[in-house]
Design brief:
heterodimer; A: mainly beta; 4-stranded antiparallel sheet; B: about 110 residues; 5-stranded antiparallel sheet; 11 strands
Chain lengths: ~120, ~110
């Protein structure tokens, strides 16, 4: 199956700093990438949908100026948490969807990034 | 938008027994229904999916059924094993490049 990597896997930062998380599709071209946040014992909450070469579409309640998304190529999307605060501490997971054929509907998830803001 | 409800939230079964997880969805346009398994601290893994043009799909011990009229779909795991213990999420999508809406998850515990 398709492989999606995410970096870093874990990050601890001080309040007020910015953190960048990378999501890469390793063996397929991802026309669409999704960013989720998952709190302990809860479901995946979609934050935004990122299409290559265009602006991300944010879900209601997600601050676009705080969570900057860049989908610069067909294999890379980045999420930057700007001026992070303790309440931003969470598990951030990206997923990627390929183009065409049977696999178009299928989302492949990255391993996630555990963000802890002190 | 789409709303997906999932039940039960927790499920304990004896090893070898069957487990059933049920989901309902609200958007009649949804036509793609994947199921994911997530172990603690790890990424969700697709275990099976079904499209609206079929009513049932089976893969070894796992099966999924879909009732489009009632807008509900279910995951069936037979002959459960301890390694089946995880959180399972159902999801629904209108397919193509549209977003997937996840259910709230079911924590399955298989007791040896």
């Amino acid at each position: 199956g398709a492989v999606v990597s995410q970096h870093p896997s874990r990050v601890i930062c001080k309040s007020g700093t910015s953190v960048k998380i990378e999501c890469r599709s390793l063996d397929f071209q991802a026309t669409t990438m999704f960013w989720y946040r998952q709190f302990p014992k809860q479901s995946l909450m979609l934050m935004a949908t990122s299409n290559e070469g265009s602006k991300a579409t944010y879900e209601q309640g997600v601050e676009k100026d705080k969570f900057l998304i860049n989908h610069a190529s067909l294999t890379l999307s980045t999420l930057t948490v700007t001026s992070a605060h303790p309440e931003d501490s969470s598990f951030y997971i990206c997923s990627a969807r390929g183009r065409g054929g049977e696999g178009t509907d299928t989302q492949y998830f990255g391993p996630g990034t555990r963000l802890t803001v002190l | 938008g789409e709303n997906v409800e999932q039940h039960p939230s927790t499920l304990s079964v004896q090893e070898g027994d069957s487990a059933v997880i049920k989901c309902t969805y609200s958007d009649s346009a949804s036509n793609y229904f994947p199921w994911y398994k997530q172990e603690l601290g790890k990424r969700p893994q697709l275990i099976i999916d079904i499209r609206s043009n079929v009513g049932e799909k089976k893969d070894q011990r796992i099966a999924v059924t879909l009732n489009k009229t009632a807008k509900h779909f279910s995951l069936h795991i037979t002959e459960t094993q301890p390694e089946d213990s995880a959180v399972y999420f159902c999801a629904a999508s209108t397919g193509g490049y549209q977003k997937v809406t996840f259910g709230t998850g079911t924590k399955l515990q298989v007791i040896p």
